[in-house]
Amino acid sequence: MNISQVLKSPFRWPWRINISRRVQDRLAIFLFLLPSFVIFLLFIIYPIIRAAYFSMFNWNGMGPATIFVGVDNFKQILTDHVFIKSIENCLLIVVLSLAVQLPLAMMLAIMVGRELPGRAFFRAVFFMPYVLSEVITAIIWLGLFSADPERGFINALLILIPGVQAQNFLGDINQVMGCIFIVLTWKYFGLHMLLYMAGLQNIPREIEEAAMIDGANRWQTVRRVTIPLLGSTIRTTILLSVLGSLTQFNLVWIMTRGGPVNASEVMSTYMYRYAFIRFQLGYGSAVALVMLAVCLIFSIMYLRLSRQPDYLGGV
Amino acid sequence: MAIARAQKRNTTKKMLPRFFQYLVLSITTLIVLVPIVIMVFGALKTRGEMFSHPYTPPIPAHWENFATILKAPSFWLMLRNSLIVMVGSTGGVLIVCSLASFIFARMQFRGKDLAFNFLTLGLMFPITVAIMPVYLVIRQMNLIDSFLAVILVQTAFGISQNILILRGFFTSIPMELQDASYIDGCSPFGFFWRIMLPLARPALAAIGALTMIVSWNDLLTPLVLLNSEKLWTLPLGTMQFQGQYSSDLALTAAFVTLTALPAILFYLFFERQIVSGLTAGALKG
Protein backbone atom coordinates (compact mmCIF):
# COMPACT_ATOMS: atom_id res chain seq x y z
CA MET A 1 0.00 0.00 0.00
CA ASN A 2 1.21 3.47 -0.84
CA ILE A 3 1.99 5.47 2.27
CA SER A 4 0.86 8.84 0.94
CA GLN A 5 -2.39 7.27 -0.13
CA VAL A 6 -2.98 5.99 3.34
CA LEU A 7 -2.25 9.32 4.89
CA LYS A 8 -4.78 11.10 2.71
CA SER A 9 -7.55 9.38 4.60
CA PRO A 10 -6.44 9.66 8.21
CA PHE A 11 -8.14 7.49 10.71
CA ARG A 12 -10.07 9.80 13.04
CA TRP A 13 -11.38 9.19 16.46
CA PRO A 14 -14.80 10.86 16.81
CA TRP A 15 -13.52 12.80 19.83
CA ARG A 16 -10.14 13.50 18.36
CA ILE A 17 -10.58 17.25 18.07
CA ASN A 18 -11.09 17.70 21.77
CA ILE A 19 -8.12 15.81 23.17
CA SER A 20 -4.52 16.80 22.87
CA ARG A 21 -1.81 14.68 21.30
CA ARG A 22 -0.36 14.08 24.76
CA VAL A 23 -3.55 12.68 26.22
CA GLN A 24 -4.05 10.62 23.10
CA ASP A 25 -0.61 9.09 23.51
CA ARG A 26 -1.23 8.30 27.18
CA LEU A 27 -4.51 6.66 26.30
CA ALA A 28 -2.88 4.59 23.56
CA ILE A 29 -0.09 3.45 25.90
CA PHE A 30 -2.61 2.39 28.49
CA LEU A 31 -5.00 0.63 26.15
CA PHE A 32 -2.32 -1.11 24.07
CA LEU A 33 -0.50 -2.51 27.07
CA LEU A 34 -3.65 -3.51 28.93
CA PRO A 35 -4.31 -6.90 27.28
CA SER A 36 -0.77 -8.21 27.62
CA PHE A 37 -0.51 -7.10 31.24
CA VAL A 38 -3.89 -8.56 32.17
CA ILE A 39 -3.16 -11.93 30.57
CA PHE A 40 0.40 -12.03 31.85
CA LEU A 41 -0.57 -11.14 35.40
CA LEU A 42 -3.61 -13.40 35.49
CA PHE A 43 -2.08 -16.53 33.95
CA ILE A 44 1.57 -16.35 34.92
CA ILE A 45 2.25 -14.11 37.90
CA TYR A 46 -0.92 -14.66 39.92
CA PRO A 47 -0.77 -18.47 39.56
CA ILE A 48 2.76 -18.50 40.93
CA ILE A 49 1.65 -16.43 43.93
CA ARG A 50 -1.28 -18.81 44.49
CA ALA A 51 1.05 -21.78 44.27
CA ALA A 52 3.36 -20.17 46.81
CA TYR A 53 0.39 -19.93 49.17
CA PHE A 54 -0.80 -23.52 48.66
CA SER A 55 2.73 -24.88 48.89
CA MET A 56 2.47 -24.32 52.64
CA PHE A 57 -0.55 -26.60 52.98
CA ASN A 58 -1.24 -30.29 52.93
CA TRP A 59 -4.08 -30.05 50.43
CA ASN A 60 -5.69 -32.60 48.14
CA GLY A 61 -7.66 -30.07 46.13
CA MET A 62 -11.01 -30.83 47.74
CA GLY A 63 -12.52 -27.88 49.58
CA PRO A 64 -10.42 -25.13 51.07
CA ALA A 65 -6.85 -25.76 52.14
CA THR A 66 -6.87 -25.97 55.93
CA ILE A 67 -3.97 -28.15 57.03
CA PHE A 68 -1.12 -25.65 57.33
CA VAL A 69 2.27 -27.35 57.30
CA GLY A 70 4.63 -24.39 56.76
CA VAL A 71 7.80 -25.37 54.96
CA ASP A 72 7.34 -29.09 55.58
CA ASN A 73 6.53 -29.74 51.92
CA PHE A 74 9.82 -28.19 50.87
CA LYS A 75 11.72 -30.15 53.50
CA GLN A 76 10.12 -33.32 52.26
CA ILE A 77 10.90 -32.55 48.61
CA LEU A 78 14.52 -31.76 49.23
CA THR A 79 15.03 -34.91 51.27
CA ASP A 80 13.07 -37.22 48.95
CA HIS A 81 15.66 -39.33 47.17
CA VAL A 82 13.36 -39.62 44.15
CA PHE A 83 13.36 -35.84 43.76
CA ILE A 84 17.13 -35.71 44.20
CA LYS A 85 17.35 -38.37 41.51
CA SER A 86 15.11 -36.29 39.26
CA ILE A 87 17.36 -33.24 39.68
CA GLU A 88 20.38 -35.40 38.91
CA ASN A 89 18.70 -36.67 35.76
CA CYS A 90 17.84 -33.12 34.67
CA LEU A 91 21.40 -31.99 35.27
CA LEU A 92 22.67 -35.02 33.37
CA ILE A 93 20.58 -33.97 30.35
CA VAL A 94 21.81 -30.38 30.72
CA VAL A 95 25.45 -31.47 30.77
CA LEU A 96 25.05 -33.90 27.87
CA SER A 97 23.19 -31.29 25.84
CA LEU A 98 25.88 -28.69 26.36
CA ALA A 99 28.73 -31.13 25.85
CA VAL A 100 27.38 -33.19 22.96
CA GLN A 101 24.26 -31.77 21.35
CA LEU A 102 25.33 -28.15 20.90
CA PRO A 103 28.86 -28.93 19.63
CA LEU A 104 27.35 -31.45 17.23
CA ALA A 105 24.87 -28.86 15.99
CA MET A 106 27.62 -26.31 15.57
CA MET A 107 29.86 -28.75 13.74
CA LEU A 108 27.08 -29.53 11.30
CA ALA A 109 26.24 -25.84 10.87
CA ILE A 110 29.86 -24.98 10.05
CA MET A 111 30.06 -27.99 7.77
CA VAL A 112 26.99 -26.93 5.81
CA GLY A 113 28.41 -23.43 5.94
CA ARG A 114 27.29 -20.68 3.61
CA GLU A 115 27.45 -22.10 0.14
CA LEU A 116 27.68 -25.89 0.20
CA PRO A 117 25.52 -27.21 -2.64
CA GLY A 118 22.47 -28.84 -1.09
CA ARG A 119 22.56 -26.49 1.89
CA ALA A 120 18.82 -25.84 1.84
CA PHE A 121 18.08 -29.55 1.62
CA PHE A 122 20.18 -30.47 4.65
CA ARG A 123 18.76 -27.61 6.66
CA ALA A 124 15.20 -28.63 5.82
CA VAL A 125 15.79 -32.28 6.70
CA PHE A 126 17.68 -31.67 9.93
CA PHE A 127 15.07 -29.24 11.16
CA MET A 128 12.12 -31.52 10.41
CA PRO A 129 12.06 -33.39 13.76
CA TYR A 130 11.65 -30.04 15.51
CA VAL A 131 8.32 -29.54 13.76
CA LEU A 132 6.98 -32.94 14.84
CA SER A 133 5.30 -32.88 18.22
CA GLU A 134 7.04 -34.46 21.17
CA VAL A 135 4.17 -36.94 21.39
CA ILE A 136 4.87 -38.19 17.87
CA THR A 137 8.61 -38.23 18.51
CA ALA A 138 8.15 -40.24 21.68
CA ILE A 139 5.91 -42.82 20.00
CA ILE A 140 8.29 -43.23 17.06
CA TRP A 141 11.26 -43.82 19.36
CA LEU A 142 9.31 -46.00 21.72
CA GLY A 143 9.02 -48.37 18.78
CA LEU A 144 12.67 -48.03 17.71
CA PHE A 145 13.94 -48.72 21.23
CA SER A 146 11.75 -51.76 21.75
CA ALA A 147 13.65 -54.54 23.52
CA ASP A 148 12.32 -57.11 21.05
CA PRO A 149 14.41 -57.12 17.83
CA GLU A 150 11.25 -58.10 15.96
CA ARG A 151 9.74 -54.77 16.93
CA GLY A 152 12.64 -52.47 17.70
CA PHE A 153 14.75 -51.40 14.74
CA ILE A 154 17.80 -50.50 16.82
CA ASN A 155 17.98 -53.93 18.37
CA ALA A 156 17.39 -55.49 14.97
CA LEU A 157 20.53 -53.67 13.79
CA LEU A 158 22.48 -54.48 16.95
CA ILE A 159 22.02 -58.24 16.77
CA LEU A 160 23.50 -58.19 13.28
CA ILE A 161 26.83 -57.46 14.94
CA PRO A 162 28.35 -60.78 16.04
CA GLY A 163 28.50 -61.17 19.81
CA VAL A 164 26.10 -58.31 20.55
CA GLN A 165 22.81 -59.11 22.22
CA ALA A 166 19.54 -57.23 22.16
CA GLN A 167 19.48 -54.47 24.77
CA ASN A 168 16.71 -53.51 27.12
CA PHE A 169 17.13 -49.76 26.44
CA LEU A 170 14.15 -48.02 28.02
CA GLY A 171 13.64 -50.92 30.43
CA ASP A 172 17.20 -50.79 31.75
CA ILE A 173 17.89 -48.39 34.59
CA ASN A 174 21.41 -47.73 33.30
CA GLN A 175 20.46 -47.12 29.69
CA VAL A 176 17.21 -45.27 29.95
CA MET A 177 18.61 -41.74 30.37
CA GLY A 178 21.02 -42.28 27.50
CA CYS A 179 18.12 -43.32 25.29
CA ILE A 180 16.11 -40.26 26.27
CA PHE A 181 19.10 -38.06 25.53
CA ILE A 182 19.43 -39.61 22.06
CA VAL A 183 15.79 -38.82 21.35
CA LEU A 184 16.18 -35.26 22.63
CA THR A 185 19.22 -34.80 20.41
CA TRP A 186 17.40 -36.23 17.39
CA LYS A 187 14.56 -33.79 17.93
CA TYR A 188 16.42 -30.64 18.86
CA PHE A 189 19.87 -30.57 17.21
CA GLY A 190 18.23 -29.20 14.06
CA LEU A 191 16.91 -26.18 15.92
CA HIS A 192 20.33 -25.33 17.29
CA MET A 193 21.93 -25.95 13.93
CA LEU A 194 19.44 -23.58 12.33
CA LEU A 195 20.26 -20.88 14.85
CA TYR A 196 24.00 -21.33 14.30
CA MET A 197 23.51 -21.17 10.55
CA ALA A 198 21.62 -17.90 10.95
CA GLY A 199 24.41 -16.63 13.17
CA LEU A 200 27.00 -17.61 10.57
CA GLN A 201 25.10 -15.63 7.95
CA ASN A 202 25.64 -12.54 10.03
CA ILE A 203 29.41 -12.92 10.14
CA PRO A 204 30.98 -11.02 7.26
CA ARG A 205 32.90 -13.44 5.09
CA GLU A 206 35.77 -10.94 4.84
CA ILE A 207 36.73 -11.49 8.46
CA GLU A 208 37.28 -15.21 7.95
CA GLU A 209 39.05 -14.59 4.66
CA ALA A 210 41.34 -12.10 6.34
CA ALA A 211 42.27 -14.71 8.92
CA MET A 212 43.00 -17.24 6.18
CA ILE A 213 45.19 -14.74 4.33
CA ASP A 214 47.05 -14.09 7.56
CA GLY A 215 47.97 -17.75 7.55
CA ALA A 216 45.38 -19.32 9.82
CA ASN A 217 44.29 -22.78 8.77
CA ARG A 218 40.66 -23.85 8.63
CA TRP A 219 40.54 -25.12 12.19
CA GLN A 220 42.27 -22.04 13.60
CA THR A 221 39.86 -19.81 11.71
CA VAL A 222 36.87 -21.63 13.14
CA ARG A 223 38.24 -21.66 16.67
CA ARG A 224 39.65 -18.14 16.84
CA VAL A 225 37.33 -16.23 14.55
CA THR A 226 34.06 -17.98 13.80
CA ILE A 227 33.19 -19.30 17.25
CA PRO A 228 33.96 -16.06 19.12
CA LEU A 229 31.87 -14.13 16.59
CA LEU A 230 28.99 -16.55 17.13
CA GLY A 231 29.05 -15.58 20.82
CA SER A 232 25.55 -14.21 21.18
CA THR A 233 23.97 -17.09 19.24
CA ILE A 234 25.85 -19.62 21.36
CA ARG A 235 24.62 -17.98 24.54
CA THR A 236 21.04 -18.07 23.28
CA THR A 237 21.25 -21.75 22.39
CA ILE A 238 22.75 -22.49 25.80
CA LEU A 239 19.82 -20.81 27.55
CA LEU A 240 17.26 -22.59 25.36
CA SER A 241 18.99 -25.90 25.85
CA VAL A 242 19.37 -25.58 29.63
CA LEU A 243 15.79 -24.46 30.22
CA GLY A 244 14.46 -27.12 27.87
CA SER A 245 16.50 -29.85 29.57
CA LEU A 246 15.46 -28.79 33.04
CA THR A 247 11.76 -28.88 32.23
CA GLN A 248 11.49 -31.74 29.75
CA PHE A 249 8.20 -33.53 30.33
CA ASN A 250 6.42 -34.95 27.27
CA LEU A 251 9.11 -37.27 25.94
CA VAL A 252 9.92 -38.75 29.31
CA TRP A 253 6.31 -39.12 30.35
CA ILE A 254 5.23 -40.93 27.19
CA MET A 255 8.31 -43.09 26.83
CA THR A 256 8.91 -44.22 30.40
CA ARG A 257 6.60 -42.45 32.90
CA GLY A 258 9.79 -41.81 34.85
CA GLY A 259 10.56 -45.52 35.18
CA PRO A 260 11.91 -48.10 35.48
CA VAL A 261 12.07 -47.62 39.27
CA ASN A 262 12.38 -43.84 38.95
CA ALA A 263 15.53 -44.22 36.86
CA SER A 264 14.34 -41.63 34.34
CA GLU A 265 12.38 -39.41 36.73
CA VAL A 266 12.81 -35.72 35.92
CA MET A 267 11.53 -32.75 37.91
CA SER A 268 8.46 -32.22 35.74
CA THR A 269 7.35 -35.87 35.82
CA TYR A 270 7.80 -35.84 39.58
CA MET A 271 5.66 -32.72 39.79
CA TYR A 272 3.03 -34.17 37.46
CA ARG A 273 2.83 -37.40 39.43
CA TYR A 274 2.22 -35.67 42.75
CA ALA A 275 -0.04 -32.92 41.47
CA PHE A 276 -2.19 -34.69 38.90
CA ILE A 277 -2.03 -38.40 39.70
CA ARG A 278 -1.86 -38.46 43.49
CA PHE A 279 -3.65 -35.12 43.61
CA GLN A 280 -1.51 -33.68 46.38
CA LEU A 281 -1.89 -30.14 45.15
CA GLY A 282 -0.07 -28.55 48.08
CA TYR A 283 2.96 -30.74 47.60
CA GLY A 284 2.75 -30.33 43.83
CA SER A 285 2.75 -26.54 44.21
CA ALA A 286 5.87 -26.76 46.30
CA VAL A 287 7.58 -28.88 43.63
CA ALA A 288 6.58 -26.34 40.97
CA LEU A 289 8.15 -23.57 43.05
CA VAL A 290 11.38 -25.52 43.45
CA MET A 291 11.49 -26.03 39.68
CA LEU A 292 10.84 -22.33 39.17
CA ALA A 293 13.68 -21.49 41.53
CA VAL A 294 16.07 -23.80 39.66
CA CYS A 295 15.12 -22.20 36.33
CA LEU A 296 15.48 -18.68 37.71
CA ILE A 297 18.91 -19.47 39.12
CA PHE A 298 20.05 -20.63 35.68
CA SER A 299 18.44 -17.69 33.90
CA ILE A 300 20.02 -15.16 36.22
CA MET A 301 23.40 -16.82 35.85
CA TYR A 302 22.86 -16.62 32.10
CA LEU A 303 22.02 -12.92 32.26
CA ARG A 304 25.20 -12.30 34.22
CA LEU A 305 27.30 -14.22 31.72
CA SER A 306 25.64 -12.72 28.68
CA ARG A 307 26.89 -9.27 29.59
CA GLN A 308 30.15 -10.28 27.94
CA PRO A 309 31.13 -8.14 24.98
CA ASP A 310 29.37 -8.89 21.74
CA TYR A 311 32.18 -8.81 19.22
CA LEU A 312 29.95 -8.56 16.20
CA GLY A 313 28.32 -5.44 17.61
CA GLY A 314 31.41 -3.51 16.60
CA VAL A 315 31.62 -4.93 13.11
CA MET B 1 53.60 -28.66 -15.70
CA ALA B 2 54.40 -27.72 -12.16
CA ILE B 3 51.45 -25.39 -12.11
CA ALA B 4 49.14 -28.08 -13.41
CA ARG B 5 50.33 -30.47 -10.76
CA ALA B 6 49.89 -27.87 -8.07
CA GLN B 7 46.39 -27.20 -9.31
CA LYS B 8 45.60 -30.90 -9.29
CA ARG B 9 46.92 -31.22 -5.76
CA ASN B 10 44.83 -28.24 -4.85
CA THR B 11 41.63 -29.76 -6.17
CA THR B 12 42.22 -33.09 -4.41
CA LYS B 13 42.98 -31.09 -1.31
CA LYS B 14 39.63 -29.41 -1.75
CA MET B 15 37.76 -32.51 -2.84
CA LEU B 16 38.68 -34.60 0.17
CA PRO B 17 37.08 -32.39 2.84
CA ARG B 18 34.09 -31.96 0.53
CA PHE B 19 33.68 -35.72 0.34
CA PHE B 20 34.05 -36.00 4.09
CA GLN B 21 31.48 -33.22 4.58
CA TYR B 22 28.92 -34.95 2.40
CA LEU B 23 29.59 -38.27 4.11
CA VAL B 24 28.86 -36.86 7.57
CA LEU B 25 25.84 -34.95 6.34
CA SER B 26 24.44 -37.98 4.53
CA ILE B 27 24.79 -40.17 7.62
CA THR B 28 23.02 -37.51 9.68
CA THR B 29 20.29 -37.29 7.06
CA LEU B 30 19.80 -41.05 7.34
CA ILE B 31 19.62 -40.92 11.12
CA VAL B 32 17.00 -38.18 10.93
CA LEU B 33 14.89 -39.76 8.22
CA VAL B 34 15.02 -43.48 9.02
CA PRO B 35 12.79 -43.29 12.12
CA ILE B 36 10.19 -41.30 10.20
CA VAL B 37 10.36 -43.62 7.18
CA ILE B 38 9.98 -46.74 9.34
CA MET B 39 6.87 -45.23 10.87
CA VAL B 40 5.37 -44.44 7.47
CA PHE B 41 6.24 -47.95 6.24
CA GLY B 42 4.53 -49.43 9.28
CA ALA B 43 1.43 -47.36 8.66
CA LEU B 44 1.07 -48.95 5.22
CA LYS B 45 1.21 -52.54 6.45
CA THR B 46 -1.38 -54.89 7.83
CA ARG B 47 -1.11 -56.01 11.40
CA GLY B 48 0.22 -59.40 10.32
CA GLU B 49 2.87 -57.94 8.01
CA MET B 50 4.02 -55.70 10.84
CA PHE B 51 4.90 -58.84 12.81
CA SER B 52 6.32 -60.97 10.02
CA HIS B 53 8.65 -58.37 8.44
CA PRO B 54 8.52 -55.12 10.37
CA TYR B 55 11.19 -53.06 8.58
CA THR B 56 10.79 -53.77 4.88
CA PRO B 57 9.07 -51.35 2.52
CA PRO B 58 5.33 -51.98 2.36
CA ILE B 59 4.82 -53.67 -1.00
CA PRO B 60 1.99 -53.70 -1.84
CA ALA B 61 0.87 -50.75 0.26
CA HIS B 62 -2.20 -51.25 2.41
CA TRP B 63 -4.24 -48.14 3.03
CA GLU B 64 -6.76 -49.83 5.33
CA ASN B 65 -5.23 -48.41 8.50
CA PHE B 66 -5.70 -44.88 7.25
CA ALA B 67 -9.23 -45.66 6.16
CA THR B 68 -10.04 -47.06 9.61
CA ILE B 69 -8.82 -43.93 11.33
CA LEU B 70 -10.33 -41.46 8.88
CA LYS B 71 -13.70 -43.19 9.20
CA ALA B 72 -13.73 -42.80 12.97
CA PRO B 73 -15.42 -39.54 14.00
CA SER B 74 -13.02 -39.09 16.92
CA PHE B 75 -10.11 -38.27 14.60
CA TRP B 76 -12.00 -35.46 12.89
CA LEU B 77 -13.22 -34.19 16.24
CA MET B 78 -9.67 -33.98 17.55
CA LEU B 79 -8.50 -32.32 14.36
CA ARG B 80 -11.24 -29.73 14.76
CA ASN B 81 -10.37 -29.18 18.44
CA SER B 82 -6.70 -28.71 17.63
CA LEU B 83 -7.60 -26.22 14.92
CA ILE B 84 -9.86 -24.21 17.25
CA VAL B 85 -7.17 -24.00 19.91
CA MET B 86 -4.47 -23.18 17.37
CA VAL B 87 -6.46 -20.40 15.70
CA GLY B 88 -7.46 -18.95 19.07
CA SER B 89 -3.96 -18.95 20.49
CA THR B 90 -2.37 -17.59 17.34
CA GLY B 91 -4.95 -14.83 17.08
CA GLY B 92 -4.50 -14.03 20.75
CA VAL B 93 -0.72 -13.86 20.51
CA LEU B 94 -0.80 -11.73 17.35
CA ILE B 95 -3.23 -9.17 18.77
CA VAL B 96 -1.86 -8.92 22.27
CA CYS B 97 1.79 -8.91 21.27
CA SER B 98 1.54 -6.53 18.32
CA LEU B 99 -0.28 -3.96 20.48
CA ALA B 100 2.28 -4.14 23.27
CA SER B 101 5.31 -4.30 20.98
CA PHE B 102 4.14 -1.19 19.16
CA ILE B 103 4.14 0.76 22.41
CA PHE B 104 7.56 -0.56 23.40
CA ALA B 105 9.02 0.27 20.00
CA ARG B 106 7.43 3.66 19.45
CA MET B 107 6.22 5.43 22.58
CA GLN B 108 8.13 7.06 25.37
CA PHE B 109 6.86 6.92 28.93
CA ARG B 110 8.19 6.59 32.42
CA GLY B 111 8.78 3.01 33.53
CA LYS B 112 8.94 1.69 29.96
CA ASP B 113 12.02 -0.45 30.54
CA LEU B 114 10.55 -1.81 33.73
CA ALA B 115 7.31 -2.74 31.99
CA PHE B 116 9.19 -4.39 29.16
CA ASN B 117 11.45 -6.39 31.45
CA PHE B 118 8.43 -7.47 33.42
CA LEU B 119 6.62 -8.81 30.37
CA THR B 120 9.71 -10.66 29.20
CA LEU B 121 10.14 -12.42 32.55
CA GLY B 122 8.40 -15.36 30.93
CA LEU B 123 11.59 -16.11 28.99
CA MET B 124 13.15 -17.33 32.18
CA PHE B 125 10.93 -20.37 32.63
CA PRO B 126 8.99 -22.57 30.21
CA ILE B 127 5.33 -23.46 30.59
CA THR B 128 6.08 -26.82 32.24
CA VAL B 129 7.21 -25.03 35.39
CA ALA B 130 4.03 -23.01 35.73
CA ILE B 131 1.43 -25.51 34.57
CA MET B 132 0.64 -26.65 38.10
CA PRO B 133 0.06 -23.10 39.41
CA VAL B 134 -1.89 -22.24 36.26
CA TYR B 135 -4.12 -25.25 36.86
CA LEU B 136 -5.00 -23.93 40.33
CA VAL B 137 -6.06 -20.57 38.93
CA ILE B 138 -7.98 -21.97 35.96
CA ARG B 139 -9.85 -24.20 38.39
CA GLN B 140 -10.60 -21.25 40.61
CA MET B 141 -12.00 -19.39 37.59
CA ASN B 142 -14.17 -22.39 36.66
CA LEU B 143 -12.53 -22.56 33.26
CA ILE B 144 -11.40 -26.19 33.50
CA ASP B 145 -12.44 -28.24 30.49
CA SER B 146 -12.81 -25.34 28.09
CA PHE B 147 -10.91 -24.29 24.99
CA LEU B 148 -10.83 -20.76 26.32
CA ALA B 149 -8.58 -21.89 29.19
CA VAL B 150 -6.11 -23.58 26.83
CA ILE B 151 -6.12 -20.59 24.49
CA LEU B 152 -5.56 -18.06 27.28
CA VAL B 153 -2.73 -20.06 28.82
CA GLN B 154 -0.99 -20.66 25.50
CA THR B 155 -1.34 -16.96 24.70
CA ALA B 156 0.06 -15.97 28.08
CA PHE B 157 3.12 -18.13 27.55
CA GLY B 158 3.64 -16.75 24.06
CA ILE B 159 3.76 -13.14 25.24
CA SER B 160 7.37 -12.81 26.38
CA GLN B 161 9.13 -14.21 23.37
CA ASN B 162 6.86 -12.70 20.75
CA ILE B 163 6.92 -9.22 22.24
CA LEU B 164 10.69 -9.42 22.10
CA ILE B 165 10.68 -10.46 18.43
CA LEU B 166 8.03 -7.98 17.30
CA ARG B 167 9.53 -5.04 19.14
CA GLY B 168 12.69 -5.60 17.12
CA PHE B 169 10.78 -5.48 13.85
CA PHE B 170 8.73 -2.45 14.83
CA THR B 171 11.83 -0.55 15.96
CA SER B 172 13.37 -1.04 12.54
CA ILE B 173 10.52 0.82 10.82
CA PRO B 174 11.73 4.40 10.22
CA MET B 175 10.62 7.03 12.69
CA GLU B 176 9.98 9.53 9.87
CA LEU B 177 6.88 7.59 8.90
CA GLN B 178 5.40 8.14 12.31
CA ASP B 179 6.20 11.85 12.31
CA ALA B 180 4.72 12.23 8.85
CA SER B 181 1.52 10.44 9.78
CA TYR B 182 1.11 12.49 12.95
CA ILE B 183 1.58 15.73 11.03
CA ASP B 184 -1.14 14.57 8.68
CA GLY B 185 -3.44 14.09 11.64
CA CYS B 186 -3.17 10.36 12.23
CA SER B 187 -3.93 9.07 15.73
CA PRO B 188 -1.57 6.57 17.43
CA PHE B 189 -4.03 3.81 16.69
CA GLY B 190 -4.40 4.96 13.11
CA PHE B 191 -0.65 4.89 12.64
CA PHE B 192 -0.45 1.43 14.20
CA TRP B 193 -3.32 0.03 12.18
CA ARG B 194 -2.69 1.64 8.80
CA ILE B 195 1.06 1.81 8.62
CA MET B 196 2.80 -0.35 11.19
CA LEU B 197 0.83 -3.54 10.77
CA PRO B 198 0.96 -3.63 6.96
CA LEU B 199 4.68 -2.98 7.05
CA ALA B 200 5.26 -5.62 9.72
CA ARG B 201 3.39 -8.31 7.83
CA PRO B 202 6.44 -10.58 7.37
CA ALA B 203 7.16 -10.38 11.09
CA LEU B 204 3.56 -11.13 11.96
CA ALA B 205 3.63 -14.11 9.60
CA ALA B 206 6.79 -15.35 11.31
CA ILE B 207 5.47 -15.22 14.86
CA GLY B 208 2.11 -16.49 13.65
CA ALA B 209 3.69 -19.57 12.08
CA LEU B 210 5.78 -20.21 15.19
CA THR B 211 2.83 -19.86 17.54
CA MET B 212 0.78 -22.19 15.37
CA ILE B 213 3.41 -24.92 15.65
CA VAL B 214 3.83 -24.47 19.38
CA SER B 215 0.08 -24.59 19.95
CA TRP B 216 -0.48 -27.50 17.56
CA ASN B 217 2.18 -29.61 19.28
CA ASP B 218 1.40 -28.62 22.86
CA LEU B 219 0.53 -31.60 25.02
CA LEU B 220 0.86 -30.43 28.58
CA THR B 221 -1.65 -27.57 28.59
CA PRO B 222 -4.56 -29.61 27.15
CA LEU B 223 -3.51 -32.63 29.22
CA VAL B 224 -3.84 -30.70 32.44
CA LEU B 225 -6.73 -28.39 31.57
CA LEU B 226 -9.05 -30.60 29.51
CA ASN B 227 -10.91 -33.60 30.90
CA SER B 228 -13.70 -34.62 28.57
CA GLU B 229 -12.75 -36.74 25.62
CA LYS B 230 -14.75 -34.66 23.17
CA LEU B 231 -12.43 -31.69 23.79
CA TRP B 232 -9.16 -33.58 23.29
CA THR B 233 -6.66 -32.11 20.89
CA LEU B 234 -4.55 -34.23 18.55
CA PRO B 235 -1.43 -34.62 20.73
CA LEU B 236 -3.60 -35.65 23.66
CA GLY B 237 -5.59 -38.04 21.51
CA THR B 238 -2.42 -39.47 19.98
CA MET B 239 -1.04 -40.23 23.42
CA GLN B 240 -4.24 -41.96 24.50
CA PHE B 241 -4.50 -43.82 21.21
CA GLN B 242 -1.00 -45.17 21.61
CA GLY B 243 -1.85 -46.46 25.09
CA GLN B 244 -5.09 -48.02 23.92
CA TYR B 245 -3.89 -49.71 20.72
CA SER B 246 -0.32 -50.47 21.72
CA SER B 247 -0.73 -54.03 20.45
CA ASP B 248 -1.74 -52.93 16.97
CA LEU B 249 1.51 -51.32 15.87
CA ALA B 250 0.42 -50.75 12.29
CA LEU B 251 -2.70 -48.87 13.32
CA THR B 252 -0.72 -46.75 15.81
CA ALA B 253 1.82 -45.96 13.11
CA ALA B 254 -0.97 -44.88 10.78
CA PHE B 255 -2.47 -42.65 13.44
CA VAL B 256 0.88 -41.04 14.20
CA THR B 257 1.58 -40.57 10.49
CA LEU B 258 -1.75 -38.87 10.00
CA THR B 259 -1.21 -36.49 12.90
CA ALA B 260 2.34 -35.74 11.77
CA LEU B 261 1.24 -34.95 8.24
CA PRO B 262 -0.32 -31.52 8.90
CA ALA B 263 2.79 -30.37 10.76
CA ILE B 264 5.15 -31.53 8.03
CA LEU B 265 3.05 -30.01 5.25
CA PHE B 266 2.78 -26.79 7.17
CA TYR B 267 6.53 -26.78 7.65
CA LEU B 268 7.24 -27.37 3.96
CA PHE B 269 4.97 -24.49 2.96
CA PHE B 270 5.99 -21.99 5.62
CA GLU B 271 9.62 -22.88 6.21
CA ARG B 272 10.77 -19.34 5.53
CA GLN B 273 8.40 -17.79 8.08
CA ILE B 274 9.19 -20.37 10.74
CA VAL B 275 12.92 -20.02 10.28
CA SER B 276 12.85 -16.22 10.31
CA GLY B 277 10.70 -16.22 13.44
CA LEU B 278 13.00 -18.57 15.30
CA THR B 279 16.20 -16.84 14.30
CA ALA B 280 14.83 -13.37 15.02
CA GLY B 281 13.93 -14.53 18.50
CA ALA B 282 17.30 -16.09 19.08
CA LEU B 283 19.49 -13.36 17.66
CA LYS B 284 17.74 -10.58 19.50
CA GLY B 285 17.24 -12.50 22.71
List keywords for this structure.
heterodimer, A: 315 residues, mainly alpha, MetI-like fold, two-stranded antiparallel sheet, flat, B: 285 residues, globular
Short description:
Chain A is mainly α and 315 residues long.
How does this structure look, described?
The complex is a heterodimer of chains A (315) and B (285). By secondary structure, chain A is mainly alpha-helical. Chain A has a single domain, classed as MetI-like (MetI-like fold). In chain A, 68% of the residues lie in helices and 1% in strands. Chain A has a two-stranded antiparallel sheet. Chain B has two domains: 42 residues; 183 residues, MetI-like (MetI-like fold). The relative contact order of chain B is 0.13. The mean pLDDT of chain B is 86. Chains A and B meet through helix 1, helix 2, helix 4, helix 5 and helix 6 of A and helix 1, helix 4, helix 5, helix 6 and helix 7 of B.
Q: Give me the number of helical elements of chain A.
A: 14
Strand content of chain A: under 5%
What's the CATH H-level superfamily name of chain A? MetI-like
Q: Which parts of chain B are unreliable, with pLDDT below 50 for 5 consecutive residues or more? A: none
How many individual helices of chain B? Answer: 13
Percent of residues in helices of chain A comes to: 55-70%
CATH level-4 homologous superfamily of the largest domain in chain B: MetI-like
- Any idea of the CATH topology of chain A? MetI-like fold
* Total DSSP E strands of chain B: 0
| Broad shape of chain A | flat
Query: Please, what is the average pLDDT of chain A?
Result: 85
Order of helices and strands of chain B: HHHHHHHHHHHHH
Q: What is the H-and-E element order of chain A? A: HHEEHHHHHHHHHHHH
The level 1 CATH classification of the largest domain in chain B is Mainly Alpha
Mean pLDDT of chain B: 86
The largest sheet of chain B is: none
Radius of gyration of chain A: 26 Å
Q: Just give the CATH class of chain A.
A: Mainly Alpha
Tell me about the largest β-sheet of chain A. Answer: 2 strands, antiparallel
Number of domains in the coordinates of chain B? 2
